[in-house]
Write a structure and sequence with these properties.
With about 240 residues, this protein is mainly beta. It is about 0% helix and about 40% strand.
Amino acid sequence: MATQNVRFNTTIKAAEDLNTSAFQYHAIALVDGKLANNGEETSGILLNKPKDGEFLSLGYVGEMKFAAGAAISAGAKLVVTTSGWFTTADSNDPILGEAKATVTSGSIGTGLFNLPTGTDKSNIIMASLTSSVDMIAGTVMHLVDHEQADICQEADAVALGATTAAVAANFGLHGVMNVRIGPAVVASLGDSLMVAESGYLTPVTSGYYAIAKALTNIGSDALGSAVFLGGTFGYVSSM
């Protein structure tokens, strides 16, 4: 059973109807008094059920209930996705809290929170962009069609977390960030990287452009740190 303990809360005015159990314990953005759609705009958790224009109770520090948008394990780090649902954080996501106990999708869980907070992205030039398809964290997007890049010349931006089609999310354009290596391949520290397909990266081979360089060993279908320059380092004529 979900529980709450000592917590800090404040009040702000709701800017949309949130007066049913379907919205209680979802994440709220203080800036507009509406449901948050990502971790970085999350200011707290809705504790009551206000109508549009009424004051909502916003919990921001302590042991609180939260609405789980997916199955979450005890100890998992938490982030927010569309409509204020909490889910397990990917690498590069702002860490908002930690699940105290396992909770099923669509249920109310208990977590430990310290809001607002976020992950340091000082080494990344990033932008809020919208993909036309769901994307896995660390894969690369082509800005022309907003889909996963399939060749190096399309490698424009890296998804810093899992994205949902038609929902704005943070993408890295340049800097040190986590990228995802494709299935059945691995990358070693210092490897130059290129796009394989579906936005995955792989070590570069002759006749292709390098778009990133691995800063650590990265396993198959795994995330790892790399320097991504957005565009190309240059054509590799021989290995």
